[in-house]
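We were asked to recover a plausible sequence for a given structure. The inputs and outputs are reproduced exactly as logged, with field labels preserved.

PROBLEM: sequence recovery
POSITIONS: 472
GIVEN STRUCTURE:
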């Protein structure tokens, strides 16, 4: 499998180089496969839902087969995923894909654990440490820190926006020791991401240190997230007729979206042959991509703090990958977009709980609200010639090819629940009047001491800190 660069299509490199470098330092471009391979027909045509690990292994073989022997790859997959991704029906045409059963209770565990083991595999025999720089708007940092904790030859520096993530998220980040540390940056997630990206294009810094990324900038974080899209789509395909009496439904995946890495993984899964008819990109007030989908103009902007803080991204880096995979017109055929404000997020948590009994987190709530509104009249209104004003929360005026299946009651939705609701207990309590149960692995973290390091929002200061504190 060869990989190329979103900014220079003539680039050809192998998986090891793409993984260990994170992005192309010569261009600042992001790595993507030269071609998207197609899933094995036997996997796609099973009459029963396959296991998650089987799906993960079959997909991983397509991307790693030339670089990692199958026996080693099987060991990596088994080590990565001692947990599953349950597909939970919450109403006759809605499933919730629970992605919070990993060690840090967020979907980032699926990508981070695979990436950590891939980097460790490729880093064997190196005599200089590999330094991972990662910006986080909430859950990425803790997942990456957990995945790399104690991994020999690799250390991790996490940048997060001080005071702009939940208390529990910050506690998860600020309590690492050993080869993982967290920098509390005076700024936004976009500022953190800018510091990291600048470091990767700093020639002098890269000559001194071996640097790589663990954001969805890194292709090894992105590809394994396609595992759960394929797994969920095949599971729903097999069980839908029994659950809702709809034969061959349009499967629509509703993706809470911030930096758009998760949606990009879904697009890759669809290109590989997963039975996904379309997507809904569900965002908060940081609606750069929904606005682009409507207007065709990509206009990055400063991020806005919201209750769904992990999606507070005004300049999503994976827009670059999306446009490398699809033209604007192609994307509009199967992607709908929706945005809501904090009131809509609270409404989503309340609505989901009242109608189904399910407790959903603020990010999943944005997805739930999008799917509920689309089913309950937003798509009909749009198709009847009454588009929503893009300045107001709601469905943006783009009609995908699957729109009629909504009106014909021939569609089912998979809402991605990207984090455990206990990570946002205050917001959930505001919506439903009580806090959700807290998993033991989160409760233990609350008693650990904070170890975060204050960092100015200034590249020169950040660069000096790296040169002083990292081992060459």
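RECOVERED SEQUENCE:
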């Amino acid at each position: 499998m060869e990989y190329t660069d979103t900014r220079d299509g003539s680039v050809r490199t192998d998986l090891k180089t793409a993984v260990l470098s994170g992005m192309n330092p010569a261009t600042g471009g992001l790595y993507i496969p030269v071609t998207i391979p197609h899933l094995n027909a036997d996997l796609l045509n099973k009459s029963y839902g396959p296991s998650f690990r089987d799906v993960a292994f079959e997909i991983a073989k397509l991307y790693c087969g030339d670089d990692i022997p199958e026996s080693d790859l099987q060991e990596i997959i088994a080590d990565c995923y001692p947990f599953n991704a349950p597909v939970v029906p919450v109403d006759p045409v809605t499933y919730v894909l629970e992605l919070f059963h990993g060690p840090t209770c967020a979907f980032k565990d699926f990508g981070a654990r695979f990436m950590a083991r891939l980097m460790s595999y490729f880093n064997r025999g190196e005599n200089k440490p590999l330094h991972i720089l990662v910006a986080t708007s909430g859950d990425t940092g803790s997942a990456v820190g957990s995945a790399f904790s104690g991994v020999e030859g690799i250390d991790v520096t996490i940048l997060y926006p001080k005071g702009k993530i939940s208390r529990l998220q910050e506690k998860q980040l600020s309590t690492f020791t050993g080869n993982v540390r967290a920098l509390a940056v005076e700024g936004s997630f976009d500022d953190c991401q800018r510091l990291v990206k600048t470091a990767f294009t700093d020639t002098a810094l890269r000559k001194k240190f071996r640097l790589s990324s663990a954001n969805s900038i890194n292709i090894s974080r992105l590809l394994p997230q396609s595992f759960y899209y394929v797994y969920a789509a095949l599971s729903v395909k097999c069980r839908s007729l029994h659950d809702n009496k709809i034969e061959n439904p349009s499967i629509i995946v509703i993706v809470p979206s911030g930096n758009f890495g998760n949606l990009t993984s879904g697009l890759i899964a669809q290109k590989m042959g997963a039975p996904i008819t379309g997507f809904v990109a569900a965002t908060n007030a940081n609606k750069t991509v929904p606005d682009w989908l409507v207007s065709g103009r990509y206009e990055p902007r400063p991020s806005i703090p919201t209750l769904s803080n992990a999606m507070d991204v005004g300049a999503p880096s994976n827009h670059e990958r999306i446009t490398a995979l699809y033209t604007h017109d192609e994307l509009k055929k199967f992607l709908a977009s929706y945005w809501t404000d904090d009131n809509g997020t609270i409404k989503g948590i309340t609505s989901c709980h009242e109608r189904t009994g399910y407790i959903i987190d603020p990010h999943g709530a944005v997805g739930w609200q999008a799917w509920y509104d689309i089913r309950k009249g937003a798509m009909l209104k749009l198709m009847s010639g009454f588009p929503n004003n893009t300045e107001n929360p709601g469905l943006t005026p783009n009609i995908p090819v699957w729109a009629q299946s909504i009106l014909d009651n021939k569609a089912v939705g998979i809402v991605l629940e990207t984090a455990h609701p206990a990570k946002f207990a205050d917001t959930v309590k505001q919506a439903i009047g009580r806090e959700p149960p807290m998993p033991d692995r989160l409760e233990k973290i609350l008693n650990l001491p904070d170890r975060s390091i204050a960092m100015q929002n200034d590249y020169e200061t950040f660069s000096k800190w790296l040169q002083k504190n990292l081992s060459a």
